[in-house]
Amino acid sequence: MKKIIFRADDLGYSEGVNLGIAKTVKKGLVRTVGLIVNLEHSKEGFELIKENDVCLGLHVNISYGKPVSPSSALPSLLNENGRFKSSGEYNNAMADFVSYNEVYREVEAQYLCFKRMTGRNPDYIEGHAIMNQTYFRAIEAIAAAYHLQYIPALLSSDDYFVIKKERLYFWMESMNADYDPYQMFLRVCSVEREGIEVMIFHPGFIDDELLTRSSLLLPRVREVQFLTRDDLDSFIQQRNIELTTYKKLERR
After folding, report:
1. How far is it, in rounded angstroms, from Cα 213 to Cα 41?
2. Is residue 157 within 8 Å of 185, Cβ to Cβ?
3. Which of 143, 155, 186, 191 could form a disulfide with 150 if both were Cys (CB 3.0 to 4.6 A apart)?
4. C-beta of residue 54 within 8 angstroms of C-beta of residue 24
5. What is the Cα–Cα distance from 165 to 113, expressed in whole angstroms?
């Protein structure tokens, strides 16, 4: 039986994103959700899905909005307005300017904020938008310190991460110009290999905040449409696919 995880990232990013993710969760097929905790819409996003049985993770964010930690403690991560530097500033930098101690402090602060907001531990922890090794090391260190399941950023569908001797393969194609989530799903279904296929989505509806702040727009709407289409559940059953979550995998 093929096993697939449908993961929706960015809960809390904006009102439109919250509504889009909530719609996919209530449809019943999205059962793994990453929550950003440091934004204006974080709490309302959690409120929209808290009654649903989802695997809820901490989507650590250091590239948008204000930090949870005092601004004075994070000089390498913030711009002159006291807000996080953009993902482009991190990802296009010629040298790694991120201070490990600073990012560790902010990841820990976001973890504790998650616990206050939700009343529970995250089922997993991973990062948002930044491809930076210092950032990843800090997230993994917090995961180890608080006994959380760390999920790395693997953006190639040939790469895998092992949990309890189970290979997890990661798919994310939303930045491609010709992106079609249904076609990606069909490719996932056609792959024959041992392990679990993790499909990473960013569903949402376009609002002013997204138009102003995000480079990912139409793919979010297309993902809402795909993840709520009426025939998807029957297709999954006919193909003998099991939709699973990180919660069902024992920690390494």
Report:
1. 14
2. no
3. 143
4. no
5. 31
Short-list 207, 234, 236, 194, CA closest to 20 = 207
Neighbouring residues of 158: CB distance < 8 A, sequence distance ≥ 6: 169
Give the phi and the psi of residue 206 in degrees, each rounded to 5.
Answer: -75, 130
Q: Are 104 and 77 in contact (CB under 8 A)?
A: no
Integer Cα distance of 10 and 201 in angstroms: 9
Would you say residue 251 has pLDDT above 50? no
Give me the half-sphere count of Cα atoms (radius 13 Å) on the Cβ side of residue 204.
27
pTM of the model: 0.97
DSSP SS3 for 161: strand
Give pLDDT tens digits for 203-243: 999 999 999 999 999 999 999 999 999 999 999 999 999 99
- Which residues are within 8 A (CB) of 187 and not within 5 positions of it... i.e. 6 or more apart? none
Structure-block tokens of residue 94: 């010629």
Confidence band (pLDDT; 50, 70, 90) for 132? very high
